[in-house]
Design goal:
This protein is mostly beta strands and 161 residues long. It is 8% helix and 32% strand. The termini are far apart.
Length: 161
């Protein structure tokens, strides 16, 4: 089966809250139902994304931008691949699964993360791994200020100090 792929058609004038686009929350929905999901109480998925694929356990974001926030929020299983940059709160409150970002991520990657794996090819913003309880975050590029702020357990792997 092919991964469920969200291709960004146009940039929104404001940040887009993508917390409803995870394997947990899309399970059992048809493509037609997914296209009608409201994001930010303003946009529907159909307004911003083209969708192909049928495997809800593997989600891909193409043409993504820093406007897309909360990708992978509260996910507990499956995988999300982001083929460009993404916004703030990547993997926030994550409870399992894995996220791979092939670009840069915004602030608060893995905020209050409990389990899972987040790998970022580019840079991560401020407060990476903040209030983290468990799990693993790997960042190939630079990280911003306050990395691991309030972290209890877990692992943050960095290639650059």
């Amino acid at each position: 089966m092919k991964p469920l792929t969200f291709t960004l058609k146009k940039l929104a004038p404001s940040k887009v809250d993508c917390r409803r686009l995870t394997p947990d929350k899309l399970e059992g929905l048809s493509i037609k139902q997914i296209l009608e999901i409201t994001l930010n109480n303003t946009f529907k998925v159909i307004d911003l994304f083209d969708i192909i694929g049928e495997d809800f356990e593997q989600i891909v974001f193409r043409n993504s931008s820093p406007q897309l926030a909360y990708i992978g929020h509260e996910m507990s299983r499956g995988s999300i691949t982001i083929e460009a940059d993404c916004g703030d709160f990547l993997g926030a409150n994550m409870r399992g699964g894995h996220i791979i970002c092939h670009g840069n991520a915004g602030d608060r990657v893995g905020d209050q993360m409990r389990r899972g794996l987040i790998l970022i090819d580019g840079n991560a913003g401020d407060y990476c791994g903040s209030r983290m309880l468990a799990g693993t975050i790997g960042v190939h590029g630079q990280v911003g200020n306050y990395t691991g702020f309030g972290m209890k357990r877990g692992t943050i792997l960095l290639t650059k100090p």
